[in-house]
Design the sequence.
């Protein structure tokens, strides 16, 4: 009798973002309170300040600008809190979406270049996900390949491998399904594999 | 040009450095200075109220919190403690939470609808039965503090109902409802306010543990449920109630209430009580006869959880053989793919199962049945024979019990018919026969109203002047309240005397109130009998000399029916 083996998932993702359903509902109580009294927003501000700052800073070069953008994110959140509707996902996903929008606004207005903070550990995780040990020495090639990605694709790789976010979290930030986030990320890994293979062949021919 | 500026392994700032950038005070100042911020004006200062711009109020968005779930199971009464009313030592002014005060302005100081107090043990929950017959079902651990922490210990529930126009008037709760730019007045079938305190501080309801409300009311029609948005000073539609006729079930002896031994259950379905067979779920599953493996067929081993497939108990050492009658099994894909997961589920045919392999978006399904190999088959047959005998014995006993249940059922139906006839006779003489419970759930404390938005009364529209005893216009009051004694609503006219379009029903019994400097003024129906139905009309508002001690006393004084 032939056997079937199951490959366990490789990369471990630890995120503060995960919240139980009860946590989310309780958090929504805080949101509803903050809608009535803006001073009550402080609890949410304290809870999320660091996470939003890191999200902004990951995409920026200047720390001071990142602080300014973070403040702007929370100001926008307060001003638009009355529009916020609980949709069964953590409040953080709404803040991240505002942060993403604010970051792009800064790039557009200040004509600042988008920064990518690459983690070597993240590249190694990517090489592992590519399931090919032979890619391990080619971290530099992988890095180059990543930087060829368009912004729309880059955000998946960035969130998954450099920010170590779960697919569920990526999905909620980008407003897509978890499965979609997973499929898109694995397709991008395949794309990176093709880019690297293509470059290796070119190098051999040269 | 490069798309990105790249940093590699840039050190992350320390938490202390990040947190040094926090400054909520500054953020709040920016918020307060921002032109786009939401300002919670009192409703009488709002544009819709002043007159022209109805659209402005639509800006206040409020999330849907109330869940109207008609199918939600009513908590088992036996499992929740019954709560007894406590002596209430707080005045309504003390109880009304700060945010509510902004939009609710009781017109007469010191006179309001009183709250009833109930003490609930937060960890256990409980059923509050109000004097009106209304019931509130609190789940265990349903209360949270402002930070979302579960409240333990005793919780003070403060509850009151508004059952006639006097109650609404005294509460100061506005009854206007804006929909698509048109102002309606809510005509109520029951209105309530629910708040809770722990150690004197306001607490909140965990939205995952909503309170089920059964509001004693009348009428058979379904009404909308609205929640009063305390920040925006307006009613927000939340859904519809479910009307449940209050019918007492027939008197039963203890031995047959619930499920009795003979398998008959007493079941409440919708508004009907009936006798039904209880389910006979304790009949064991018929074991599946072991089958020998066919060496020529594809098969594989599947580790399944025995509790999920009790009928496979004899197959603990089974392998699953692929049934290729309907679908050819793709052996290449099956054996040369590193699958990420495998699931076993019951097939459409008895004894058949479906194995599903998955890798990413790729799926492979195979219809399978369990088989035994070699000596395992012989021992499985022994187990099967023994289990089959047990099954047959259980089945015979089950059949006997079911027959007994059928006879019992028929006897109970006959008994129930007699009791129902008696009940119908009683109901014919009982004025409360048409009373109902309006059932809905709320997942935050506040003010709720089973209502229908109605236009102003019809029959007469006049330019109405409110005059004082010497014939001059009465000044110094901001709101004129109109009661139509045949309707449970309160029609308000603000900041205008004369009122340009005063709507009234000349065939009804009308009453006008106004409050000036804390004193109540009135004009009763006698002034409406001579009122023209169009053109100009006037009334003389006279001060009410009597001092009322309670809402009930005021209702009796003005001869306003209870309505519900």
Sequence:
């Amino acid at each position: 009798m032939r056997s079937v083996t199951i490959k366990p998932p490789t990369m471990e993702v630890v995120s503060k973002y995960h919240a139980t359903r009860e946590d989310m509902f309780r958090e929504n109580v805080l949101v509803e309170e903050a809608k009535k009294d803006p001073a009550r927003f402080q609890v949410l501000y304290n809870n999320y300040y660091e996470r939003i700052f890191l999200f902004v800073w990951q995409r920026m070069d200047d720390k001071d600008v990142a602080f300014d953008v973070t403040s702007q994110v929370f100001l926008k959140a307060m001003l638009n809190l009355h529009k916020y509707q609980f949709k069964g996902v953590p409040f953080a996903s709404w803040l991240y979406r505002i942060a993403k929008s604010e970051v792009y606004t800064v790039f557009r207005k200040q004509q600042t270049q988008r920064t990518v903070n690459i983690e070597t550990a993240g590249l190694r995780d990517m090489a592992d996900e590519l399931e090919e040990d032979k890619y391990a020495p080619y971290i530099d090639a992988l890095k180059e390949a990543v930087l060829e990605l368009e912004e729309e694709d880059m955000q998946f790789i960035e969130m998954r491998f450099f920010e170590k976010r779960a697919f569920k979290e990526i999905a909620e930030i980008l407003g897509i399904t978890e499965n979609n986030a997973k499929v898109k990320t694995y397709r991008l890994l395949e794309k990176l594999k093709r880019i690297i293979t293509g470059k290796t062949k070119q190098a051999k021919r040269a | 040009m490069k798309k990105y500026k790249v940093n590699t392994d840039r050190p992350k700032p320390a938490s202390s450095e990040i947190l040094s950038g926090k400054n909520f005070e500054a953020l709040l100042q920016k918020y307060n200075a921002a032109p786009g911020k939401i300002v919670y004006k009192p409703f009488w200062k709002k544009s819709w109220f002043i007159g022209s711009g109805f659209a402005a109020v639509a800006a206040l968005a409020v999330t849907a919190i109330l869940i109207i779930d008609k199918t939600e199971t009513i908590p088992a009464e036996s499992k929740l403690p019954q709560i007894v009313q406590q002596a209430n030592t707080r005045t309504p002014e003390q109880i009304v939470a700060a945010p509510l005060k902004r939009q609710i302005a009781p017109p007469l100081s010191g006179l309001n609808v009183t709250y009833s107090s109930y003490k609930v043990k937060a960890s256990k929950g409980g059923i509050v039965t109000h004097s009106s017959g209304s019931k509130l079902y609190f789940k265990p651990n349903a209360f949270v503090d402002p930070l979302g922490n579960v409240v333990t210990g005793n919780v003070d529930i403060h509850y009151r109902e508004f059952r006639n126009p006097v109650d609404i008037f005294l509460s100061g709760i506005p009854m206007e409802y804006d929909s698509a730019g048109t102002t309606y007045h809510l005509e109520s079938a029951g209105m309530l306010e629910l708040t809770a305190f722990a150690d004197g501080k306001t607490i909140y309801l965990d939205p995952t543990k909503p309170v089920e409300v059964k509001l004693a009311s009348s009428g058979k029609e379904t009404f909308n449920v609205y929640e009063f948005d305390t920040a925006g000073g307006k009613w927000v539609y939340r859904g519809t109630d479910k009307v449940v006729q209050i019918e007492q079930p027939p008197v039963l002896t203890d031995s047959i209430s619930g499920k009795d031994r003979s398998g008959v259950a007493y079941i409440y379905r919708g508004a009907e009580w009936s006798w039904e067979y209880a389910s006979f779920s304790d009949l064991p599953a018929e074991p599946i006869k072991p089958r020998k493996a066919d060496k020529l067929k594809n098969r594989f081993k599947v580790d399944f959880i025995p509790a999920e497939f009790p009928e496979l108990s004899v197959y603990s050492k089974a392998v699953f053989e692929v049934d290729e009658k309907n679908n050819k099994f793709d052996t290449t894909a099956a054996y040369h793919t590193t699958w990420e997961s495998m699931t076993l589920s019951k097939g459409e045919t008895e004894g058949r199962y479906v194995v599903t392999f998955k890798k990413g978006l790729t799926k492979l399904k195979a219809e399978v049945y369990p088989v035994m190999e070699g000596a395992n088959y012989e021992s499985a047959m022994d187990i099967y024979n023994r289990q089959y005998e047990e099954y047959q014995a259980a089945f015979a006993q089950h059949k006997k019990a079911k027959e007994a249940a059928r006879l019992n059922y028929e006897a109970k139906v006959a008994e129930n018919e007699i009791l129902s006839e008696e009940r119908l006779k009683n109901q014919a003489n009982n004025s409360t026969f048409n009373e109902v419970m309006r059932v809905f759930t709320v997942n935050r404390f506040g003010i709720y109203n089973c209502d229908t938005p109605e236009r102003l009364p019809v029959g007469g529209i006049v330019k109405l002047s409110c005059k004082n005893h010497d014939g001059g216009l009465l000044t110094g009051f901001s709101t004129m309240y109109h009661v139509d004694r045949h309707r449970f609503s309160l029609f308000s006219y603000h900041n205008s005397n004369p009122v340009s379009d005063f709507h009234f029903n000349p065939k009804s019994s009308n009453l006008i109130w106004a409050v000036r400097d804390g004193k109540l003024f009135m004009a009763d129906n006698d002034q409406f009998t001579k009122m023209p139905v169009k053109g100009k009309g006037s009334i003389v508002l006279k001060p009410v000399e009597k001092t009322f001690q309670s809402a009930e006393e005021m209702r009796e004084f003005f001869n306003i029916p209870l309505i519900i």
